[in-house]
Amino acid sequence: MRTNSVKIGPENFEQEMTSVWSFKERGDWATHNPNYRGNWSPYIPRNLILRYSKEKDLILDQFAGGGTTLVEAKLLNRNCIGVDINPEAIKLCKKAIDFEMPKSGKVTLIKGNAQNLSKIKDKSIDFVCTHPPYANIINYSDGIKNDLSLFKVKDFIEAMKPVAAESYRVLKDNKFCAILIGDTRKNGRVVPLGFGIMRVFLNAGFKLKEIIIKEQHNCKATGYWKSSSIKYNFLLLAHEYLFVFVKDVVKNNKRNKKERYTVIDNKTGEICSLDELIIERLI
155-167 pLDDT, tens per residue? Predict the structure, then answer.
């Protein structure tokens, strides 16, 4: 256990005030490790935690990964539950939170499935702050059952429905859920993974509070993709979406579901919402 040996935060930190976030430096304070592929910059959960929670609140990250959110929650004196399906990720999280400091939050780790948070009670979480895999862009295991990083885009979006439902269940009324997600490409076309996941969370009952554009930096494949983008005439994806949802119970109770425009899918014959059909066609 490391005691009072960590740098507790970034120098000259200021909270973000606009809907476009850009962090050229990933963040090297505390125990943060940039070597966990695909993890988010600690500047992101730090901003989110400060804005959407208060000290001693209970935060959930059900895709804990390398533990970035957990470290920030502990540093900012929030309690936190970190869930991950991969035992190797749990080991990394244990190492990341292995420090002590005055007024630090308590972190609980659970090896589990984000689709089924049965160990967490209804309406017990003050803030959901998470960064799931982007379908199978990066595989985090060699075949762990229900590891969402092994799912192709359509299956991934379907698998995120119970994740959204569980997020809604465990979150307290009128509290917030933040999720970072990006798009991908297939056959030279953009696959709108971000908007697909946004729709999943809206259909779970959440209302949309903010759409934040997060600029990407230091992508490992930048050199290769630069030449390919010129050769094949496509733009490099240099942004991700940070969606902030709210469990707005009062407004949800007044919601008129009949106001949603519905159409018949010519392929399946099923009735679905117009926006769902548009996303399905794009994917």
Answer: 999 999 999 999 9
